[in-house]
Amino acid sequence: MKKSFLFLADGFEETEAVGTLDVLRRGGVEVRTVSVMGKQEVKGAHGLVVKADVLLQDMLGEEGEFLIFPGGMPGAQNLSDSQELTDYLQKHFARQGKVAAICAAPALVFGKLPLKKDIRMTCYPGFEKYLPGIAVLAEGVVIDGNVITGRGPGYSFEFGLAIVEHLYGKERAEEVAAGMLL
Fold first, then answer.
1. Is 123 a catalytic residue?
2. Which of these is catalytic: 23, 89, 103, 121?
3. pLDDT tens string 62-97
């Protein structure tokens, strides 16, 4: 199985990034954090500084199993503003690659994808306007084919578990959840 990538930009929501990453690694997902900021140190929306595993420009030739996008502001906007990342995401999506985003990222990042109008998604309340014509549900986590979306920080663990389940099955996700006392 290929590695997955979790993208970070200044202003990312710490709980969504770190919580999701923790769940994924507990589940055995080989995931690398990627800075789109041109430097390894990325500062979260609430001041937490994280050192990314790799810079975007150093991994662009690699294919990922899942491309994962935490939200937070202005983090989700900074992800959306990266043309290199948008191009990479669009190529991955065109190959039916798996994608996951939470909070503002489903709207700001996935809003640039050629989404089917019958796709179901969720996002942070108020960001639905960036997904015109899309069925945006007020659920914690929504899975529609190869697209997983989460509503916000309180759903970070459930979001990560949905990715684990998508990759390795329900039993593995339940084992991780049990180990975390969820």
1. no
2. 103
3. 999 999 999 999 999 999 999 999 999 999 999 999
Alpha carbon distances (Å) from 38 to 55, 74, 167: 6, 16, 30
Q: How far apart are CA 121 and CA 140, in angstroms?
A: 10
User: How many CA within 13 A on the CB side of residue 149?
Assistant: 30
Length of the chain: 182
| Identity of residue 114 | P
Give, as one character, the DSSP assignment of residue 74: T
One-letter amino acid for residue 35 of the chain: S
State pLDDT tens for residues 27-70. 999 999 999 999 999 999 999 999 999 999 999 889 999 999 99
Residue position matching structure tokens 């979001």:
159
6: which 2 tokens?
Answer: 């979790």
